[in-house]
Write a structure and sequence with these properties.
Blueprint (H helix, E strand, L loop, with lengths): L6 E3 H7 L34 H5 L5 E8 H14 L5 E6 L1 H6 L6 H10 L7 E7 H6 L3 H12 L2 E7 L10 H9 L9 E8 L11 H7 L4 E3 L7 H5 L4 E6 L5 H11 L3 E3 L6 H15 L6 H17 L4 E4 L7 H10 L3 E6 L7 H10 L4 E3 L17 E3 L1 H6 L4 E3 L9 H23 L5 H4 L7 H10 L6
Parallel strand pairs: 2-3, 2-4, 4-5, 6-7, 6-8, 8-9, 10-11, 10-13, 11-12, 13-14
Antiparallel strand pairs: 1-12
Helix pairs in contact: 1-15, 5-7, 8-11, 13-17, 14-15
Amino acid sequence: MSHTPFYITAGDAADRGPENIPKEEISTSSLVYSSPATLSYNSPGANGFGVKRAALVMPESVMLMVSPGCCGRNSTLLSRVSGYADRMFYLNMDEADLVTSRHMKLITDAVREIVEVPEKRPKVVLLCVTCVDALLGSDIEGVCRRASQESGVQVVPVTMYALTREGMKPPMALVRDTLYSLLKREKINPHAVNLMGFFAPLRDDSELYPMFRRAGLTEIRELSRCQTLGEYQKLGEANFNLVLNPEADFAAERLMKRLGMPYIDITRFYRTERISRQYELFGAAIGVKFDDRVYREEADARVEDFRRKNQSLTFAVGSMLNANPFEMAASLLGMGYRVSSVFSAYTPADLPFIREMAAIDPEVKLYTGTHPSMMYYREDEKADVTIGRDASWYAPDAVNVPFSSDVQPFGYRGLIAFLDEVDAALDGKRGKADGGKNKEGSGKNNGPACGERKSADEALRGGVS
């Protein structure tokens, strides 16, 4: 193996097209390098919203994890850090279980027992199984049916199969399907829409809410905001689902086939032109016209303010952030900034953004991040700002902007939130540089005041509640 980390320039990637992507960009073609940057997210049981935490978005639920001790120990640590330890129960598998599948006979008793343990009786038990049961070919759905009959609560299978990560149905796509699997469709509310794709809600200040309400979509529902199973079942009334993350496409497709619930995909962008065009196309698809003038003007003004304040910056973009890293890099280039590197494997779906990057700066380096050659990576070009937690490993001296909060940014207000976070990080560095004397620069930058954002909403409210 070469002692030079593999990368391809944006220009080369654009020229190669979708049929000639280098094998180094395809993780199944080699071993995966688990650097400190990737260890926290390269497993479906990882930090953030891995399979377990994501499944527990289901309201009034608890989880029974059936696994060998190694998986259980990892899950115990993560559940404590992420705050869901009191909803986790474990059935440990020993060597005899691995050989004989004896553990399958214990699951029903375990479900009955944990239903009686919490002070408030759960209404759903999520039965989480690991790669072991995938390899054994265990009949998990059959076990769930028996456990449900004997316990009197709904028991739903959750598959945490890391070995399917690169397949057609990766773990994070399957868990989204699991989350919507209990929905029923007894009636259709023409004014209701579900926002699908994330395990946490959109930011409260997102323009989607007031824009949709003015267009007649007055019931905007998100699974992550449901507190009870009754609220969850109201998701079944939606006229259609709006998919904000392509990892939810499989779940949306299954809902359409099972319940006749159609869906539309829209994408998260960080360029006002793209955001505006998407709202225009989306509105045309459902027969309404979204009035986004005030929100676009607000975002355009924030971009100009940011550019005046930060006239020359070099960015490096990672993959652990609330954005497509290639769209983010293309947007930063479009704002007039330099992007030295992107640390993320690309797919054919990313090529439109890579072509846009190549048209501005074909020399941007695209590193795979998880390729084994990355163990030899040494920062070859200094960046001022890194976006994403993993990028901070590759450029440790740069100002890091994680931009990875659970609550999700989207649209114009998402772009503003991103610029606010970058400004706050840069102001923090400036404050340290001058010894804290410049208090204006060392304070937290929240962007436009809440009152200014509220006035933007009020300017278009038109009396709609």
